[in-house]
Amino acid sequence: MQKNNLIKNPNLFPRITDIPQPLLKDMPCIQTGYLVDGEIQVWDGPRQEVLSPVWVAGDTGPKPFLIGEYPLLTEKEALQALDAAVAAYDHGRGLWPTLSVADRIDHMEQFVFRMIEVKERVVRFLMWEIGKSLVDSQKEFDRTIQYINDTLAALKDLDRTSSRFSMEEGIIGQIRRAPLGVVLCMGPFNYPLNETFTTLIPALVMGNSVILKPPKHGALLYAPLLEAFCQIFPKGVINIIYGEGRKLIPPLMASGKINVLGLIGTSKTANALKKLHPHPNRLRCVLGLEAKNPAIVLKGADLDLAVKECVLGCLSFNGQRCTALKILFVETDIVNVFLERFAAAVNALTFGMPWQEGVFITPVAEKDKTSYLEALVSDAVEQGAKIINTDRPTVCGSFFFPAILYPVTPKMRVYHEEQFGPVIPVLAFKNINEPVEYMINSNYGQQVSIFGSNPDQIASLIDPLVNQVCRVNINSQCQRGPDTFPFTGRKDSAEGTLSVSDALRVFSIRTLVAAKQTDLNKKIITRIVRDRKSKFLATDFIL
Ligand code: G3H
Fold first, then answer.
1. pTM
2. Mutate to test the pocket of ligand 1, among 321, 470, 500 (most ligand atoms within 8 A of CB)
């Protein structure tokens, strides 16, 4: 593994013979299966080649590495998936939406068991497809299992509180949460398993039927899960389709049969898709979108801590996190000392192949991303910023060694654009209103990090900033977890709240049975409950 000396090491990518053999198992993975209407269908049409961001060295230099192929389905198969999901839901009368909560939990528990059996394969593909370190890929898998288990525990709790009757103003009522219909789930490439599952799992377990389209980078890792999805859930309840989003998704939305759009992606995509739905009032959107989370570093902050958290916040998974710190505001009096320490910490980061022990910076996941990042850096440099941690080129194939840009001004693209990569714009401020105004004028409103030690000063920022964003982090980087905490954003950053318990709510609606407390009604209700004639009107308590 290496430090910031890319120029001296043009051969930083491995030869195929240098790659540990077990990591090459099942490679390339030629996937032809997709899941529609309870069957793994075989696709013999065109397929998408999957190139890993991890390039492989050869005699003519490093080249992208082919790790597999997946089906490029057409509108026809997408609409078949829609028909299957609509039929499985059957206007709320299908087997799955009418199954008891305990039975749906039972299916999900079986799924978790099967998922754990294929962990090694899923993790390996996760690593190859997006270049996430093996350790972090394993963490993503484990976090997802934990998320499912926590979701099931939260659902049991929800069901227990709904298993009793309410008596108000002479009316008996039983209030529960019911499914919404057909959910379209699309997750992002940076957490292709975890973030997709944070919408998929609550959507399923609440009784909806689902069409899932895995992200472009992060599709092969679903292959080991297809069989379990197919065997465990009733037919049509979960449908998994592959291909180009711009071809598959618009016809689904235009059909008017999608009831919930669960998308972690960009506001541009979300806005375009919403407009296609002919009945906007029948569409609920659960969206995780862009962010440009700032850090505000105040005079008096513990600089060692601020530097450590800013390195993690800006550069974990190469800055490819929606929660990443994407712009740093540092008080003028301390900006030089902060930058000196920050640059040293960034330059000390190890970069290498995702499987190497202790690796921090890995190749960036998206094709052509390095060109975009280079353009951001050139624009800033042309307008007066300097790359303060290095004077050397920072790109080699799909590697982009972090560039810290200072001083950044509003004229530069990097001040406004969500870089989603290892470029770190820094500004100095004299007046605290400068970062606050930045947040007010920003299109985004997810989180902020404040670094400081003066409680009065921090308190005076908390009150205005909680109304600008949805999480104010004190002396720590921005992040989604713990997953039981609400995760959302204002403006163009999100719609709806995701957390273990909030997600159960966003993928369902409250519905109730009510009756005046007459003798006849009491008799009817008692009979229904005692003879277990209804799954909704019931007092069963999940233990
Ligand atoms: O990309 C956005 C993720 O939700 C961030 O999650 O803060 O756990 O990395 P994280």
1. 0.96
2. 321
